[in-house]
Amino acid sequence: MERSRLASAAYRNGSAARRGSGRVERAVLVGVDLGVRSRDNRASVVAARAKSVCPDFDECAPQSATPRQSTRPQRSVAAAREAQGLDAEASLAEFRELLLSAGGQVVAEVLQRRPRPDPATLIGSGKVEEIAAAAASTNADLVLFDHDLSATQLRNLEAALPCRVLDRTQLILDIFARHARTREGQLQVELAQLEYMLPRLTGRGKAMSQLGGGIGTRGPGETQLETDRRRIQRRIDQLKRDLEAVRRVRRQQRQRREAVPVPTVALVGYTNAGKSTLFNTVTGAQVLESARMFATLDPKLRAIELPSRRRVLLSDTVGFIRNLPHTLVTSFRATLEEVVQAEVLIHVRDAASSYGDEQKAQVEKVLGELESLSKPRIEVLNKIDLLPEEQRAALLARTNSGPKGKSTAGAAVAVSALTGEGMDDLVAAIDAALHSDPVIEAELRVPQHEGAALAAIEAGMVVHTREYEGNVVRLSVSGSASLVGRMRRFRSRGE
């Protein structure tokens, strides 16, 4: 055991040197499926992929071992997976995408199924030895757990494994830190990181105590752990003050927008569902489009004109994910206020995903935390260009077959943000879902010398008929109630 600890320490030092060279970090992924019986664990998949030996993991990965048959009734793995909402293999595949978004490389994958978590290591001592062997044989730089680790579990795993250990929340926070570009985003990420780190600090007691100078100050003093906690708490308080200043600026901007009745429509959805691509297609903007998770952290706002000539602000927001860390939801509340204040939510879903229902449930869970679940929503089934032709045609017939402009809030619209298919139906659905400034019809009699009024009518209303009666233009129009109200002096008598 002592020899293995020395080897682990030597390997850890070597890993630090390799990370300093700037090369891509190699990681062992550990999936954890809790709530299944230990007998089911024999069917777990241990997929070691050493890139130096096998460049194509999908072709070289070993097949799952066949579990020994038992005549005793037992809870099925499928039932346990169904209770969790996303099966263990799919969860591990999603975790793999998270690592790729963080710029890492997968060299091995381990899946552990247990009836309950191990208090010391989460996964049990036998599986820890297996992971240590996989990390050593693949020269891994870190081990990533698709589960949150307590401070004790993290400390025990780092002592037993020959490289760094990170859990799911730490990986997501690292991705957010990598993609944060604005000052606001960086503040929010740092706050989430510190709030996650604070309860997980560990020290070495008197060996790290800070001694004062002078008579009576040569006792144990304050431990380094206490000093670190105090410093982190001070920084957290400062970050909260800075973010409150950001919220004040956002409130002022929102109040100025509310002075002119322009409603906001927010895009929400699972990460990598295609929200930014859809945003660019509808608005003509050029925000970053990426297949990597959490490429969008900061909200983007663009104005669009609807078929009724009303204008709305479309907002692109950060994507959600299964088990989104609560610290992120709290820290990004300034960003997610666009969701809270929006009149209509557009829930963008990946129509080609095999786990669309599970992803939808996770998005609704976060919307519930934001108290926005009762808002009118339009479901947008995106990426239909990836579906087989028959399936795509059936989906379009089921969702986009209604009369143009007659969609209601809560309806589903099938689109391809990449090709632009279905965009007219989506814009019509947005138009039909808005209720704060409804469209009304009116008859107007406008003198021809009222050029400003005629220009406003042409720009903001749909003109159905136009007749000239001497110096007066008689118009049959439909437009927003606010704009029609400003033209009330031109309305025909009796209206």
Explain what this protein looks like in three dimensions.
Strand 9 and strand 10 form a beta hairpin. Helices cover 42% and strands 19% of the residues. The strands form four sheets. Strands 9-10-8-11-12-13 form a six-stranded mixed β-sheet, sandwiched between helices. It has a five-stranded mixed β-sheet with strand order 2-3-1-4-5, sandwiched between helices. Strands 14-16-15 form a three-stranded antiparallel β-sheet. Helix 4 runs parallel beside helix 7, helix 7 runs antiparallel to helix 8 (183-197) and helix 8 runs antiparallel to helix 9. It folds into four domains: 2-63 and 77-177, Rossmann fold (3-Layer(aba) Sandwich); 180-203 and 225-260; 262-433, P-loop containing nucleotide triphosphate hydrolases (Rossmann fold, 3-Layer(aba) Sandwich), CATH 3.40.50; 439-490, no CATH class. The termini are far apart. It is α/β, with parallel strands linked by helices.
- Gross morphology is elongated
Low-confidence runs: 1-21, 38-84, 204-208, 402-409
CATH superfamily placement of the largest domain = P-loop containing nucleotide triphosphate hydrolases
Radius of gyration: 29 Å
Cα-to-Cα separation, first versus last residue: 91 Å
* Count of discrete structural domains: 4
For the record, what CATH class of the largest domain applies?
Alpha Beta
Query: What quaternary form is this?
Result: single chain
Q: What is the strand content?
A: 15-25%
Biggest sheet character: 6 strands, mixed
CATH topology of the largest domain: Rossmann fold
Number of strands: 16
Helix content: 40-55%
Second-tier CATH architecture of the largest domain: 3-Layer(aba) Sandwich
Q: Strand order, biggest sheet?
A: 9-10-8-11-12-13
Average pLDDT figure? 76
Structural class: alpha/beta
Number of helices: 17
